[in-house]
Design goal:
globular; alpha/beta; 6 helices; seven-stranded mixed β-sheet; 261 residues; Metallo-beta-lactamase, Chain A; 14 strands
């Protein structure tokens, strides 16, 4: 992990100490990873607090710092995994977080299989599939399909707290269930993975976002892997030329967003 730098623990203290009285608070903690807090729940989304994997494809280096050391995490109720890629289901991130908290994992079959291989006991894994719905305190989770060509068992989530809905996409591209999400959910906020080679390009992002019909689109993953980054200037040029019926918010690592309330 010497290829990137760690942030000081003050940032983790800020994330864990944040409170919200209504709606939800989203912290961007690097690439695919987010901390999501409701008045009663702290959830970690696809936590990946590690450097460039040893078996990474050539020249795909982690391009942003590691904002959190996983063995310092001391708070959490839920850990979400959208699919089994290393930056969405990582042994070295999950195990210390589960050791130091009472969190349980919500994951599709592919991620759950990996988690069991990591030694995580079944009682701390809730394996889900599209169509499932789970409630925990003030958070409702609805599970939808995902369309990652490299991981057919991937899922996406709608997180709903206090009437504010948030679409967690993982690395999905376009697919028929996204129209269902748009029709049934029209989420207030939606993540979509943006970049080169592995993720949607600028035009596909805007087309899929129009299908999802969010109030605000949150492009992510675009800055994370060297040689797989997205052209954020080109994205905004296309966005302002098309003038779609949704807002866009870019969350850089360390940024937070109060959603609803």
């Amino acid at each position: 992990m010497r290829d990137v730098a760690f942030w000081p623990k003050k940032f983790l203290d800020e994330v864990e100490g944040a409170r919200v009285s209504q709606g939800a608070l989203l912290h961007a903690v690097g690439g695919p990873s987010f901390a999501y807090r409701t008045p009663q729940v702290l959830a970690w989304i696809d936590p990946y607090f590690y450097g460039t994997p040893d078996d990474s494809v050539p020249d795909a280096y982690r391009a942003v710092p590691i904002s959190i050391k996983p063995d310092e995490v001391g708070a959490g109720d839920i850990i979400f995994s959208t699919h089994d890629h290393v930056d969405h289901c990582h042994e070295g991130s999950l195990l210390p977080m589960l050791t130091n908290t009472d969190a349980f994992c919500i994951a599709p079959a592919s991620s759950a299989r990996l988690m069991r291989g990591f030694g995580i006991p079944d009682e701390r894994i809730r394996e889900v599939k599209p169509g499932d719905s789970i409630s925990h305190l003030d958070l409702t989770i609805r599970v939808y399909p995902s369309y990652d060509p490299n991981e057919p068992l991937a899922v996406s989530y709608i997180l709903d707290s206090g009437g504010t809905s948030f679409f967690v996409s993982g690395d999905t591209s376009d697919g028929p269930a996204l129209a269902e999400v748009g029709e049934r959910e029209a989420p207030d906020y939606a993540l979509l993975a943006f970049g080169r080679t592995w993720y949607m390009d600028e035009a596909e992002m805007l087309r899929v976002a129009s299908i999802l019909r969010p109030g605000t689109l949150l492009p992510f993953h675009w800055e994370f892997w060297r040689n797989h980054t997205g052209d954020i200037v080109k994205f905004f040029e296309l966005y302002f030329s098309q003038k779609p019926d949704f807002d866009v918010k870019i969350l850089s690592i360390g940024d937070s967003l109060h959603m609803g309330g």
